[in-house]
Amino acid sequence: MLSMLEDYRNQVLETLFGNVEHCIVVVDREGCISYMNESYCRFIDVDQTTVKGKHVTDVIENTRMHIVADTGEEEMADLQQIRGDYMIAHRIPLWENGEVIGALGMVLFRDTDEWKIMNTHIKDLLLELETYRNQMQQQNGAKYSLHDIITSSPDVLQLKEKIRKTAHSDVSVLLRGESGTGKELFAHSIHHLSERSTKPFVKVNCAAIPEDLIEAELFGYQDGAFTGAKKGGKPGKFQLAHGGTLFLDEIGDMPLRAQVKILRALQEGEIEAVGAVHPQEVDVRIIAATNQSLEEMIQDQRFREDLFYRINVVQIDIPPLRTRRGDIKILSKYLLQKVSDRTGKRVEEFSKAVEDVFYKYHWPGNVRELENVIESAVHMTDGETVQYEDLPAHLQKESAPVPEAETLKQIVEQTEKQAIQKVLKEADGDKSLAAKRLGIGKSSLYDKVKKYNL
Ligand SMILES: Nc1ncnc2c1ncn2[C@@H]1O[C@H](COP(=O)(O)OP(=O)(O)OP(=O)(O)O)[C@@H](O)[C@H]1O
Predict the structure, then answer these.
(1) What pTM did the predictor assign?
(2) Measured from the CB, is residue 178 less than 6 Å from ligand 1?
(3) Which residues contact 98 (CB under 8 A, 6 or more apart)?
(4) Could you tell me which SUPFAM superfamilies the record lists for this protein (predicted)?
């Protein structure tokens, strides 16, 4: 009787949907496929005779049919990525006697060609939008505001408050913090909140420009200033930032010669282009960033003290991620959403094991590293939850369970090994610093590093 009913139901589904060009799938309460029409099978290149009874996540990429069958909440015109392209799908729960018994899914285009045309059209529109965004950004240059700085750390919240109070004035700001802590994000936010927000925000990465080109890059050059110079000359970053903000990233890498010129620009409000006869007036606000100790560089005479005091009017010290572990959870949630939106792959959460690894890891590359790890894990994951196995190998290795110790000697050794490992990591492999922090001699540390094979 049951199988007759089943046959009858299949016949009805086949009559209704068998010959339509729309892609149709029906799943039961558990998310297993009870029907998938020929169009859909052709679309995703599966054999219709084998799909029935399989869990829908094993057959359709990035599907949410099983979720709709579970929650009873319909999803209309939802973007779903299949084989790197977007399609648009309706997912409708099926009800019987007040209970959800499954769900019906439908791809919204009559045939795949039509969808391909629409997909190209959407991509075109997205590209156009991107072009406009870039144009706007080129005119202004700062795309982030204070709202984009995600944190629950009292220290960082305090920094945000400090920015709110000082951004409107024209004082120079020095952003300090390890690589990837968000210095550029802060620089954008300051510009956004300042009176100069409608004027350009221009970034210079001092570490990326060869020493002999830096003056031309910063102050521009006149026609015929040197061999290979562009005809008609070229404005420098100072001229481009006129009226707005100049963000000097990695200022510790600025050559001394250029430092003198920058100081002059700040003190006297004028610059001299390479090959120019007369100075030129400029009005820029300086935000500088560094992850080096400028004080040490001053002692070594690699950084000018007068420039340091000129740029260090307001100082923002961004703490590394490992000292604000409370931020790891909210940042990873936020970044997962960001990566999901960017890649079009819907991944919703992390498993508990992944959350634990994230919490314990020391994040030497800070938020940038967290974002990269999440991006790589999202590419690896097959479902909606990032699993431990989806993490990059170095994170899995870091968090491999430590075998349980048996004797007191083993316990002591294991604890000692872990302590040394931790401090070495925090000191970025600097053994002198690590030895100092551990309160032992350097040679003793070397012995232990050798003993534990660290
Ligand atoms: N609090 C935060 N909230 C959201 N995103 C963040 C936060 N901090 C950093 N990020 C993100 O992390 C990445 C690295 O940030 P950013 O480039 O600002 O770091 P940085 O300190 O300037 O690094 P570097 O010194 O290497 O230039 C960016 O994608 C940024 O958007």
Answers:
(1) 0.63
(2) no
(3) none
(4) Homeodomain-like, P-loop containing nucleoside triphosphate hydrolases, PYP-like sensor domain (PAS domain)
pLDDT means over runs of 10, the chain (454 residues): 69 85 91 93 90 94 93 87 78 93 85 67 78 66 84 95 90 96 95 88 90 88 71 86 95 91 90 85 95 94 95 96 95 95 88 93 95 95 91 81 62 82 84 88 88 81
Q: What share of the chain is helix, strand, coil (3-state, %, to 5)?
A: 50, 15, 35
- The domain containing residue 367 runs over which residues? 321-397
Residue ID of nearest Cα to ligand 1 atom 10: 182
Judge if 328 and 310 occupy the same domain: no
ipTM score of the complex? Answer: 0.98
Q: How far apart are CA 23 and CA 42, in angstroms?
A: 9
Overall domain count for the chain: 4
In ligand 1, which atom is closest to the CA atom of 177?
21
Q: Same domain for 30 and 161? A: no
CA dist., res. 233 & res. 202, Å (int): 19
317, 346, 370: which is the final residue of a domain? 317
Measuring from atom 12 of ligand 1, which residue has the nearest CA? 368
Q: Look up residue 221 and give its DSSP letter.
A: B
